Amino acid sequence: MFEMNFGAESLEIQLQRDGLSEAYAENLRRATAYATELAETGLLPFAKQSSEGPELTDVATAATHIRAGFKHLIVLGTGGSSLGAQAAIAISRYLPDHVAGTNTHIHTPDSLCPFEMDRLFAALEPAKTHVLAISKSGTTAETLAQLLACRAWLETKVSGDALGAHFTFITEPGERPLRTYGEKLGSPILDHPTDVGGRFSVLTTVGMLPVAVSGLSAAKFRKGAEDVSSDFCENPGASAAVVGAALTHTLHQHKSVTQVLLMPYAEALRAFTRWHGQLWAESLGKDGLGTTPIRAIGPVDQHSQLQLFLDGPNDKFCTFVTVPSLGEGPRIDPAEAKSYGLDYMAGRTIGDTVTCQSRATQETLRGKGRMVRELVIDRLSEENLGGLFVSFMLETVVTAHLMGVNAFDQPAVEEGKILTRQYLADL
Ligand code: PA5
What we know:
With 427 residues, this protein is an alpha/beta fold. It is built from 16 helices and ten strands. It has helices spanning 11-17, 21-40, 55-69, 83-89, 114-123, 141-154, 177-185, 205-213, 218-234, 240-254, 270-284, 306-311, 334-339, 350-367, 382-403, 411-426, and strands at residues 2-5, 72-76, 105-107, 129-134, 167-171, 189-191, 259-264, 292-295, 316-322, 371-377. The strands form two sheets. The protein has a five-stranded mixed sheet with strand order 1-10-9-7-8, sandwiched between helices. Strands 3-2-4-5-6 form a five-stranded parallel sheet, with helices on both faces. It is globular. 5-phosphoarabinonic acid (PA5) is lined by residues 78-81, 135-137, 140, 143, 197-199, 282, 410.
Protein backbone atom coordinates (compact mmCIF):
# COMPACT_ATOMS: atom_id res chain seq x y z
CA MET A 1 0.00 0.00 0.00
CA PHE A 2 2.23 2.85 1.18
CA GLU A 3 5.22 3.30 3.44
CA MET A 4 6.33 6.19 5.60
CA ASN A 5 9.86 7.39 5.20
CA PHE A 6 11.62 10.01 7.29
CA GLY A 7 14.94 9.94 5.44
CA ALA A 8 18.36 8.82 6.58
CA GLU A 9 17.88 10.11 10.13
CA SER A 10 15.10 8.33 12.06
CA LEU A 11 12.06 10.23 13.28
CA GLU A 12 13.13 9.65 16.88
CA ILE A 13 16.56 11.18 16.26
CA GLN A 14 15.09 14.20 14.50
CA LEU A 15 12.68 14.85 17.37
CA GLN A 16 15.40 14.30 19.96
CA ARG A 17 17.61 16.83 18.17
CA ASP A 18 14.82 19.38 18.55
CA GLY A 19 14.17 18.46 22.16
CA LEU A 20 10.68 17.26 21.27
CA SER A 21 10.89 13.57 22.18
CA GLU A 22 8.72 13.82 25.27
CA ALA A 23 6.14 16.15 23.77
CA TYR A 24 5.83 13.90 20.73
CA ALA A 25 5.58 10.75 22.86
CA GLU A 26 2.71 12.31 24.81
CA ASN A 27 0.85 13.38 21.63
CA LEU A 28 1.45 9.96 20.10
CA ARG A 29 0.05 8.35 23.23
CA ARG A 30 -3.08 10.54 23.10
CA ALA A 31 -3.52 10.02 19.36
CA THR A 32 -3.12 6.26 19.70
CA ALA A 33 -5.60 6.12 22.59
CA TYR A 34 -8.17 8.02 20.52
CA ALA A 35 -7.54 5.84 17.46
CA THR A 36 -7.94 2.73 19.60
CA GLU A 37 -11.24 4.09 20.88
CA LEU A 38 -12.38 4.70 17.29
CA ALA A 39 -11.36 1.18 16.33
CA GLU A 40 -13.15 -0.35 19.30
CA THR A 41 -16.35 1.55 18.62
CA GLY A 42 -16.41 0.40 14.98
CA LEU A 43 -14.52 3.24 13.26
CA LEU A 44 -16.12 6.29 11.69
CA PRO A 45 -18.68 5.82 8.88
CA PHE A 46 -16.52 7.52 6.22
CA ALA A 47 -13.87 4.86 6.80
CA LYS A 48 -16.29 1.96 6.69
CA GLN A 49 -17.56 2.15 3.11
CA SER A 50 -17.52 -1.51 2.14
CA SER A 51 -16.16 -2.77 -1.17
CA GLU A 52 -19.25 -4.97 -1.22
CA GLY A 53 -21.70 -2.25 -0.20
CA PRO A 54 -25.14 -2.70 -1.84
CA GLU A 55 -25.17 0.95 -2.94
CA LEU A 56 -22.39 0.09 -5.40
CA THR A 57 -25.05 -1.74 -7.42
CA ASP A 58 -27.01 1.52 -7.79
CA VAL A 59 -23.76 3.27 -8.65
CA ALA A 60 -23.03 0.70 -11.37
CA THR A 61 -26.56 0.99 -12.81
CA ALA A 62 -26.41 4.78 -12.94
CA ALA A 63 -22.89 4.70 -14.43
CA THR A 64 -23.95 2.26 -17.15
CA HIS A 65 -26.90 4.48 -18.08
CA ILE A 66 -24.65 7.54 -18.31
CA ARG A 67 -21.80 5.83 -20.16
CA ALA A 68 -24.12 4.18 -22.67
CA GLY A 69 -26.17 7.23 -23.54
CA PHE A 70 -24.07 10.34 -23.13
CA LYS A 71 -20.86 11.80 -24.47
CA HIS A 72 -20.56 14.33 -21.65
CA LEU A 73 -21.26 14.32 -17.94
CA ILE A 74 -21.45 17.61 -16.07
CA VAL A 75 -20.96 17.00 -12.34
CA LEU A 76 -22.59 19.80 -10.35
CA GLY A 77 -21.47 20.12 -6.75
CA THR A 78 -19.07 22.16 -4.73
CA GLY A 79 -16.58 21.64 -1.88
CA GLY A 80 -16.90 18.12 -0.55
CA SER A 81 -19.48 17.34 -3.20
CA SER A 82 -16.93 17.69 -5.98
CA LEU A 83 -13.29 17.70 -4.87
CA GLY A 84 -13.13 14.02 -3.90
CA ALA A 85 -14.54 12.90 -7.23
CA GLN A 86 -12.09 15.16 -9.07
CA ALA A 87 -9.17 13.70 -7.13
CA ALA A 88 -10.36 10.13 -7.70
CA ILE A 89 -11.05 10.31 -11.41
CA ALA A 90 -7.78 12.15 -12.09
CA ILE A 91 -5.83 8.90 -11.97
CA SER A 92 -7.86 7.31 -14.79
CA ARG A 93 -5.61 8.86 -17.41
CA TYR A 94 -2.48 7.41 -15.82
CA LEU A 95 -3.33 3.77 -15.23
CA PRO A 96 -1.56 1.56 -17.75
CA ASP A 97 -4.09 -1.25 -17.31
CA HIS A 98 -7.10 1.08 -17.46
CA VAL A 99 -8.25 -0.33 -20.77
CA ALA A 100 -11.99 -0.06 -20.21
CA GLY A 101 -11.79 3.70 -20.54
CA THR A 102 -14.89 5.68 -21.30
CA ASN A 103 -16.24 7.79 -24.07
CA THR A 104 -18.00 10.01 -21.57
CA HIS A 105 -16.04 13.15 -20.78
CA ILE A 106 -16.52 14.41 -17.25
CA HIS A 107 -16.73 18.15 -16.54
CA THR A 108 -16.59 19.45 -12.98
CA PRO A 109 -17.50 23.16 -12.83
CA ASP A 110 -17.16 23.22 -9.04
CA SER A 111 -16.70 26.96 -8.73
CA LEU A 112 -19.71 28.95 -9.82
CA CYS A 113 -18.58 31.09 -12.74
CA PRO A 114 -20.83 32.62 -15.41
CA PHE A 115 -18.09 32.49 -18.03
CA GLU A 116 -17.37 28.83 -17.36
CA MET A 117 -21.08 27.98 -17.66
CA ASP A 118 -21.27 29.89 -20.95
CA ARG A 119 -18.15 28.10 -22.17
CA LEU A 120 -19.53 24.67 -21.28
CA PHE A 121 -22.91 25.32 -22.87
CA ALA A 122 -21.27 26.60 -26.04
CA ALA A 123 -18.96 23.58 -26.23
CA LEU A 124 -21.35 20.71 -25.42
CA GLU A 125 -24.41 19.31 -27.16
CA PRO A 126 -27.48 19.17 -24.90
CA ALA A 127 -28.77 15.93 -26.44
CA LYS A 128 -25.50 14.16 -25.58
CA THR A 129 -25.03 15.60 -22.09
CA HIS A 130 -25.99 14.17 -18.71
CA VAL A 131 -26.05 16.19 -15.50
CA LEU A 132 -25.18 14.70 -12.11
CA ALA A 133 -26.18 17.10 -9.33
CA ILE A 134 -24.62 16.36 -5.94
CA SER A 135 -25.46 18.14 -2.71
CA LYS A 136 -25.67 16.54 0.71
CA SER A 137 -27.90 19.31 2.07
CA GLY A 138 -29.75 19.72 -1.22
CA THR A 139 -29.84 23.46 -0.55
CA THR A 140 -26.47 24.80 -1.72
CA ALA A 141 -27.10 27.92 -3.80
CA GLU A 142 -24.24 27.39 -6.27
CA THR A 143 -25.33 23.87 -7.15
CA LEU A 144 -29.01 24.75 -7.41
CA ALA A 145 -28.27 27.77 -9.62
CA GLN A 146 -26.16 25.61 -11.93
CA LEU A 147 -28.86 22.95 -12.01
CA LEU A 148 -31.56 25.39 -13.05
CA ALA A 149 -29.27 26.84 -15.70
CA CYS A 150 -28.44 23.35 -17.01
CA ARG A 151 -32.10 22.42 -17.26
CA ALA A 152 -32.95 25.52 -19.29
CA TRP A 153 -30.01 24.78 -21.59
CA LEU A 154 -30.95 21.10 -22.01
CA GLU A 155 -34.56 22.03 -22.75
CA THR A 156 -33.44 23.92 -25.85
CA LYS A 157 -32.90 20.52 -27.46
CA VAL A 158 -34.48 17.85 -25.25
CA SER A 159 -38.25 17.49 -25.04
CA GLY A 160 -40.18 17.25 -21.76
CA ASP A 161 -40.53 13.49 -21.35
CA ALA A 162 -36.93 12.68 -22.21
CA LEU A 163 -35.53 15.27 -19.82
CA GLY A 164 -35.52 13.09 -16.71
CA ALA A 165 -33.05 10.65 -18.29
CA HIS A 166 -30.52 13.48 -18.57
CA PHE A 167 -30.25 13.89 -14.80
CA THR A 168 -29.04 11.91 -11.80
CA PHE A 169 -29.10 13.25 -8.26
CA ILE A 170 -27.18 12.48 -5.07
CA THR A 171 -28.56 13.99 -1.89
CA GLU A 172 -29.65 13.00 1.59
CA PRO A 173 -33.04 11.40 2.15
CA GLY A 174 -35.82 13.70 3.40
CA GLU A 175 -37.41 16.81 2.08
CA ARG A 176 -34.95 19.15 0.45
CA PRO A 177 -35.06 21.22 -2.78
CA LEU A 178 -32.64 19.05 -4.75
CA ARG A 179 -34.51 15.85 -3.94
CA THR A 180 -37.89 17.34 -4.77
CA TYR A 181 -36.45 18.57 -8.05
CA GLY A 182 -35.18 15.10 -8.94
CA GLU A 183 -38.45 13.46 -7.94
CA LYS A 184 -40.43 15.82 -10.16
CA LEU A 185 -38.17 15.03 -13.08
CA GLY A 186 -38.47 11.29 -12.41
CA SER A 187 -34.68 10.94 -12.47
CA PRO A 188 -32.59 8.43 -10.51
CA ILE A 189 -31.75 9.66 -7.01
CA LEU A 190 -28.95 8.04 -5.03
CA ASP A 191 -28.73 8.60 -1.30
CA HIS A 192 -25.95 10.61 0.30
CA PRO A 193 -25.30 8.84 3.62
CA THR A 194 -26.60 10.92 6.49
CA ASP A 195 -23.69 9.99 8.74
CA VAL A 196 -20.89 11.09 6.38
CA GLY A 197 -20.04 14.79 5.97
CA GLY A 198 -19.35 16.40 2.58
CA ARG A 199 -15.54 16.56 2.74
CA PHE A 200 -15.43 13.00 4.09
CA SER A 201 -17.71 11.62 1.38
CA VAL A 202 -15.30 10.65 -1.39
CA LEU A 203 -15.72 6.91 -0.83
CA THR A 204 -19.53 7.13 -0.79
CA THR A 205 -21.80 7.42 -3.83
CA VAL A 206 -20.55 11.02 -4.14
CA GLY A 207 -17.09 10.02 -5.33
CA MET A 208 -17.87 6.53 -6.51
CA LEU A 209 -20.43 7.38 -9.21
CA PRO A 210 -18.03 9.69 -11.11
CA VAL A 211 -15.36 7.01 -10.56
CA ALA A 212 -17.59 4.37 -12.19
CA VAL A 213 -18.47 6.69 -15.08
CA SER A 214 -14.78 7.25 -15.70
CA GLY A 215 -14.33 3.49 -16.06
CA LEU A 216 -12.48 3.04 -12.78
CA SER A 217 -13.46 0.49 -10.14
CA ALA A 218 -15.33 1.81 -7.12
CA ALA A 219 -14.85 -1.55 -5.38
CA LYS A 220 -11.06 -1.25 -5.76
CA PHE A 221 -11.05 2.24 -4.24
CA ARG A 222 -13.00 0.90 -1.29
CA LYS A 223 -10.86 -2.21 -1.00
CA GLY A 224 -7.74 -0.05 -0.66
CA ALA A 225 -9.52 2.07 1.94
CA GLU A 226 -10.62 -1.05 3.83
CA ASP A 227 -7.04 -2.32 3.98
CA VAL A 228 -5.77 0.95 5.40
CA SER A 229 -8.68 1.13 7.85
CA SER A 230 -7.99 -2.35 9.15
CA ASP A 231 -4.25 -1.63 9.55
CA PHE A 232 -5.26 1.51 11.46
CA CYS A 233 -7.51 -0.54 13.73
CA GLU A 234 -4.94 -3.28 14.30
CA ASN A 235 -1.94 -1.09 15.02
CA PRO A 236 -3.00 2.56 15.27
CA GLY A 237 0.27 3.79 16.80
CA ALA A 238 2.19 2.79 13.68
CA SER A 239 -0.31 4.16 11.15
CA ALA A 240 0.55 7.14 8.95
CA ALA A 241 -2.65 8.81 10.19
CA VAL A 242 -1.75 8.69 13.88
CA VAL A 243 1.95 9.44 13.42
CA GLY A 244 1.09 12.32 11.08
CA ALA A 245 -1.44 13.77 13.52
CA ALA A 246 0.92 13.48 16.50
CA LEU A 247 3.75 15.05 14.52
CA THR A 248 1.72 17.96 13.15
CA HIS A 249 0.33 18.74 16.56
CA THR A 250 3.71 18.53 18.29
CA LEU A 251 5.38 20.75 15.71
CA HIS A 252 2.48 23.21 15.94
CA GLN A 253 2.64 23.34 19.72
CA HIS A 254 6.41 23.45 20.15
CA LYS A 255 8.00 24.62 16.90
CA SER A 256 5.62 27.29 15.65
CA VAL A 257 4.59 25.17 12.69
CA THR A 258 1.49 26.82 11.26
CA GLN A 259 1.35 25.28 7.79
CA VAL A 260 1.20 21.80 6.33
CA LEU A 261 2.59 21.22 2.88
CA LEU A 262 1.37 18.39 0.67
CA MET A 263 3.62 17.87 -2.34
CA PRO A 264 3.09 14.78 -4.49
CA TYR A 265 5.50 13.98 -7.28
CA ALA A 266 2.88 12.76 -9.77
CA GLU A 267 0.52 14.70 -12.03
CA ALA A 268 -2.17 12.15 -11.19
CA LEU A 269 -2.24 13.48 -7.63
CA ARG A 270 -2.52 17.18 -8.43
CA ALA A 271 -6.29 17.19 -7.79
CA PHE A 272 -5.68 15.21 -4.61
CA THR A 273 -3.92 18.24 -3.11
CA ARG A 274 -7.07 20.36 -3.63
CA TRP A 275 -9.17 17.68 -1.95
CA HIS A 276 -6.74 17.52 0.97
CA GLY A 277 -6.58 21.31 1.27
CA GLN A 278 -10.34 21.49 1.79
CA LEU A 279 -10.44 18.54 4.16
CA TRP A 280 -7.71 19.97 6.35
CA ALA A 281 -8.76 23.63 6.33
CA GLU A 282 -12.49 23.17 6.79
CA SER A 283 -12.11 20.47 9.42
CA LEU A 284 -9.44 22.09 11.58
CA GLY A 285 -9.66 25.86 11.15
CA LYS A 286 -11.73 26.58 14.24
CA ASP A 287 -11.74 28.55 17.47
CA GLY A 288 -8.65 30.52 16.41
CA LEU A 289 -6.76 27.27 15.82
CA GLY A 290 -5.62 25.34 12.79
CA THR A 291 -2.71 24.93 10.42
CA THR A 292 -2.91 26.22 6.86
CA PRO A 293 -2.65 23.67 4.06
CA ILE A 294 -0.28 24.46 1.20
CA ARG A 295 -0.58 22.71 -2.13
CA ALA A 296 2.39 22.03 -4.34
CA ILE A 297 3.33 19.47 -6.95
CA GLY A 298 6.74 18.18 -7.83
CA PRO A 299 8.91 18.81 -9.62
CA VAL A 300 7.24 21.89 -11.12
CA ASP A 301 6.83 23.76 -7.83
CA GLN A 302 10.54 23.40 -7.14
CA HIS A 303 10.60 26.30 -9.58
CA SER A 304 7.99 28.35 -7.77
CA GLN A 305 7.58 27.71 -4.03
CA LEU A 306 10.60 25.65 -3.00
CA GLN A 307 12.82 28.67 -2.32
CA LEU A 308 10.28 29.72 0.36
CA PHE A 309 10.04 26.21 1.80
CA LEU A 310 13.83 26.00 2.08
CA ASP A 311 14.79 29.46 3.10
CA GLY A 312 11.65 31.17 4.34
CA PRO A 313 10.23 30.77 7.84
CA ASN A 314 10.65 27.28 9.29
CA ASP A 315 6.90 26.99 9.94
CA LYS A 316 5.87 24.08 7.73
CA PHE A 317 5.45 20.35 8.13
CA CYS A 318 6.21 18.90 4.70
CA THR A 319 4.59 15.73 3.36
CA PHE A 320 5.81 14.31 0.07
CA VAL A 321 3.82 11.64 -1.73
CA THR A 322 5.89 9.71 -4.23
CA VAL A 323 5.41 6.82 -6.63
CA PRO A 324 8.56 4.86 -7.50
CA SER A 325 9.39 5.97 -11.03
CA LEU A 326 12.94 4.80 -11.71
CA GLY A 327 13.02 3.54 -15.28
CA GLU A 328 9.54 4.93 -16.02
CA GLY A 329 8.60 7.11 -18.96
CA PRO A 330 10.55 8.02 -22.09
CA ARG A 331 14.30 7.32 -22.09
CA ILE A 332 16.72 10.02 -23.17
CA ASP A 333 18.95 9.01 -26.06
CA PRO A 334 22.52 8.81 -24.68
CA ALA A 335 24.34 9.99 -27.82
CA GLU A 336 21.97 12.91 -28.32
CA ALA A 337 22.30 14.01 -24.67
CA LYS A 338 26.10 13.73 -24.75
CA SER A 339 26.34 15.71 -27.94
CA TYR A 340 24.91 18.66 -26.01
CA GLY A 341 27.12 18.13 -22.97
CA LEU A 342 24.22 16.69 -20.99
CA ASP A 343 26.10 13.54 -19.95
CA TYR A 344 24.34 13.38 -16.58
CA MET A 345 21.03 12.63 -18.28
CA ALA A 346 22.34 10.31 -21.00
CA GLY A 347 20.30 7.10 -21.02
CA ARG A 348 18.18 8.15 -18.05
CA THR A 349 14.40 8.11 -18.16
CA ILE A 350 12.06 10.95 -17.24
CA GLY A 351 11.11 8.86 -14.18
CA ASP A 352 14.80 8.65 -13.18
CA THR A 353 14.98 12.44 -13.27
CA VAL A 354 11.85 12.89 -11.17
CA THR A 355 13.04 10.33 -8.61
CA CYS A 356 16.34 12.16 -8.19
CA GLN A 357 14.60 15.52 -7.97
CA SER A 358 12.26 14.36 -5.24
CA ARG A 359 15.11 12.78 -3.29
CA ALA A 360 17.30 15.86 -3.65
CA THR A 361 14.49 18.20 -2.60
CA GLN A 362 13.66 16.19 0.50
CA GLU A 363 17.29 15.91 1.52
CA THR A 364 17.87 19.62 1.03
CA LEU A 365 14.83 20.44 3.15
CA ARG A 366 16.02 18.11 5.90
CA GLY A 367 19.47 19.64 5.69
CA LYS A 368 17.86 23.01 6.38
CA GLY A 369 16.21 21.66 9.51
CA ARG A 370 12.76 21.27 7.95
CA MET A 371 10.53 18.40 9.13
CA VAL A 372 9.83 16.14 6.16
CA ARG A 373 7.77 12.98 5.83
CA GLU A 374 7.48 10.93 2.66
CA LEU A 375 4.59 8.59 1.88
CA VAL A 376 5.66 6.17 -0.82
CA ILE A 377 2.87 4.42 -2.69
CA ASP A 378 4.06 1.42 -4.64
CA ARG A 379 2.12 2.39 -7.78
CA LEU A 380 -0.74 4.51 -9.01
CA SER A 381 -3.89 2.46 -8.54
CA GLU A 382 -7.47 2.74 -7.39
CA GLU A 383 -6.59 0.73 -4.27
CA ASN A 384 -3.70 2.99 -3.32
CA LEU A 385 -5.67 6.17 -3.88
CA GLY A 386 -8.55 4.75 -1.81
CA GLY A 387 -6.01 4.02 0.92
CA LEU A 388 -4.56 7.52 0.76
CA PHE A 389 -8.05 9.05 0.99
CA VAL A 390 -8.93 7.19 4.15
CA SER A 391 -5.51 7.70 5.71
CA PHE A 392 -5.67 11.49 5.31
CA MET A 393 -9.27 11.58 6.55
CA LEU A 394 -8.29 9.63 9.66
CA GLU A 395 -5.25 11.85 10.16
CA THR A 396 -7.49 14.91 10.03
CA VAL A 397 -9.92 13.50 12.57
CA VAL A 398 -7.15 12.44 14.95
CA THR A 399 -5.50 15.87 14.62
CA ALA A 400 -8.85 17.51 15.44
CA HIS A 401 -9.03 15.38 18.57
CA LEU A 402 -5.54 16.47 19.66
CA MET A 403 -6.47 20.10 19.01
CA GLY A 404 -9.81 19.79 20.76
CA VAL A 405 -11.95 20.92 17.81
CA ASN A 406 -14.89 19.31 16.02
CA ALA A 407 -13.68 18.06 12.61
CA PHE A 408 -17.15 17.65 11.22
CA ASP A 409 -18.75 21.09 11.29
CA GLN A 410 -18.00 24.42 9.57
CA PRO A 411 -20.00 26.98 11.56
CA ALA A 412 -18.08 30.03 10.37
CA VAL A 413 -19.02 29.67 6.70
CA GLU A 414 -22.75 29.49 7.37
CA GLU A 415 -23.10 33.24 7.96
CA GLY A 416 -21.80 34.08 4.47
CA LYS A 417 -24.23 31.59 2.91
CA ILE A 418 -27.20 33.24 4.62
CA LEU A 419 -26.07 36.72 3.54
CA THR A 420 -25.56 35.58 -0.08
CA ARG A 421 -29.13 34.32 -0.26
CA GLN A 422 -30.36 37.59 1.21
CA TYR A 423 -28.35 39.79 -1.21
CA LEU A 424 -29.50 37.72 -4.17
CA ALA A 425 -33.15 38.01 -3.17
CA ASP A 426 -32.74 41.78 -2.69
CA LEU A 427 -31.10 42.41 -6.08
O1 PA5 B 1 -17.36 19.53 3.45
C1 PA5 B 1 -18.37 20.16 3.54
O2 PA5 B 1 -19.24 19.93 4.39
C2 PA5 B 1 -18.66 21.29 2.56
O3 PA5 B 1 -17.54 21.61 1.82
C3 PA5 B 1 -19.77 20.86 1.61
O4 PA5 B 1 -19.37 19.71 0.92
C4 PA5 B 1 -20.12 21.96 0.63
O5 PA5 B 1 -20.46 23.13 1.30
C5 PA5 B 1 -21.29 21.52 -0.25
O6 PA5 B 1 -22.37 21.18 0.53
P1 PA5 B 1 -23.55 20.34 -0.04
O7 PA5 B 1 -23.05 18.99 -0.40
O8 PA5 B 1 -24.58 20.29 1.04
O9 PA5 B 1 -24.06 21.06 -1.26
